[in-house]
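new request in #modeling-help
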Amino acid sequence: GAGVSQTPSNKVTEKGKYVELRCDPISGHTALYWYRQSLGQGPEFLIYFQGTGAADDSGLPNDRFFAVRPEGSVSTLKIQRTERGDSAVYLCASSPMGLDTDEQYFGPGTRLTVT
Amino acid sequence: AQSVTQLDSQVPVFEEAPVELRCNYSSSVSVYLFWYVQYPNQGLQLLLKYLSGSTLVESINGFEAEFNKSQTSFHLRKPSVHISDTAEYFCAVSARGATNKLIFGTGTLLAVQP
């Protein structure tokens, strides 16, 4: 079956612009996670959805970052007034139920470059 | 809060040699432990995990890791590596009974040379 997909695969934007990154999880997975991986670092947790609601958004760095999952499937990560420090690979993962023992399945990521 | 330390950013090794990738963690609560692998130009894949039971866990491609609670370690080992094992390896933890968010280390690049 299809895995987690993310679009676009690459996004180049100018400083100050608004961007949206999309994640399409594995069908039927109720839990969805966003992570950010900066160069030379491991993935860093941003936000976790259980169904339509954000169950844990403790990793969002500031109020320029926002994510939604209106129908409990596709999720969009939104970044306002982008800064050069936002440049990173944004990873999405999904898991069947969000249980603490569930495996997370990762997408290929969106590479965001802010110029 | 949890944290993960992977002290080796890169480990060069010759083909068919043994290798150990080190991982230490810190946590005030019980954790689950994971190793993820990222092959060149591919996404993260789960390699193996420790949830409970036997402290020695194995993957299908010959890797193993041992959970050592007293040393707060979860080192990854393979007795004989192949060129195809060249990849970035990430150790991660999640807190038991929590939201399942993963806390990753900075990764270790395993570079297997012929």
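bot summary: Chain B has no helices and twelve strands.
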